Amino acid sequence: MIYIGIDISKLTFDAAYILNSRTIHKQFSNNLKGFGEFSLWVNKSKKEVYTCLEATGIYSFDLAQYLSQQKVNVMVVNPIITHAFFKMELNRNKTDKADAQLIARYCEHVVLTGDYKKRSYQPKGADYEAIQRLVTRCDQLEKSKTQENNRLEASVNKQTSRSIKRLQKAIDKEIVRIKKTIADIVKNNQSLSQQVDLLVSINGIGERTAWSILAYIGDINFFSNSKQIASYAGLTPKIIQSGTSIDKSSLSKLGHKRLRKSLYMPALVAIRHNPVLKALYERLVNNGKPKKVAIVAVMRKLLILSYGVLKSEKPFDINYQMAD
């Protein structure tokens, strides 16, 4: 058997495994051509292959789908878990090759402990794949719209301004079209529809945010508890302490940026309309915490509540939360 760790990024992915105390490593393009080359590289070993890659949103999704279709053993793991494993390995190197080697060691560990089969990747279907891609595309278009708005404000040329306005209208129409497509997919898929209903039961979360949460957290079973999902989004504080110096706390820069961003506006709405989160925000501000810190705490709580309703399959209950 060989255990292959895969460190994946936007354009490429690094694969590595250890054979006779020697590391075998190769980099591939993160596209269909690269997937085919990786498959040929793997098949040269003539041994049973177990692969492992981290869940990195759309960058890992295509490769996991491809390997699953090729009947290759594949496991997609929460990056929080592999990072914890890396710390145990006491490895100080931070390169794509080194990360792939560590993921390979983690893959071997999971296989030897007998947990690989129950953690193996299970495709969630075409509708879920479409939601992931369409939500990401919608975010891209909304970012482009903001950029065009900024250009229009700075424009002093009439022809340029007209061009920007035409593009803005086209972007608006495409955003509306994509949102309608997503809504139709959700409406016609019972599982997705139920999950959206659970999420929007939380005061502050609307359909658009519910779609983003489902798209960006991936499989809810990646997370064993609410702390893990908060870390995945980068909504956990990082504590810095040195000797007798004063502790400093800042937001971790790790985590899913788009998931984090999708929770900001809902947090502002929740502060006004969700009694549980309004009380949390006011308590933190009254205790001297900066408003930005309090907002981040509300974002974190929103995500934890989302995890709770999806995991329990029960809608949000204000009375229960207030009693808690």
| Physical arrangement of strands within the biggest beta sheet | 3-2-1-4-5
Subunit arrangement of the protein: single chain
Mean pLDDT: 87
Rg from C-alpha positions?
22 Å
Strand content range:
5-15%
Total number of strands: 7
Overall shape: globular
CATH class of the largest domain: Alpha Beta
Largest sheet: 5 strands, mixed
- The run of helices and strands is EEEHEHEHHHHHHHHEEHHHHH
CATH level 4 superfamily of the largest domain: ATPase, nucleotide binding domain
**Helix/strand/pairing category:** alpha/beta
**CATH topology value of the largest domain:** Nucleotidyltransferase, domain 5
N-end to C-end Cα span: 49 Å
Please count the helical segments. Answer: 15
Helix proportion: 55-70%
Which tags fit this structure?
single chain, 324 residues, alpha/beta, Nucleotidyltransferase, domain 5, Helix Hairpins, 3 domains, five-stranded mixed β-sheet, two-stranded antiparallel sheet, 15 helices, 7 strands, 13% strand, globular
Describe this structure in words.
- This protein is an alpha/beta fold and 324 residues long.
- The protein has three domains: 118 residues, 2-Layer Sandwich (Nucleotidyltransferase, domain 5), CATH 3.30.420; 63 residues, Helix Hairpins, CATH 1.10.287; 110 residues, no CATH class.
- The chain contains 15 helices and seven strands.
- The strands form two sheets. It has a five-stranded mixed beta sheet with strand order 3-2-1-4-5. A two-stranded antiparallel sheet has the order 6-7.
- A hairpin with a 3-residue loop joins strand 1 and strand 2.
- The N and C termini lie far apart (49 Å).
- About 4% of the residues have low confidence.
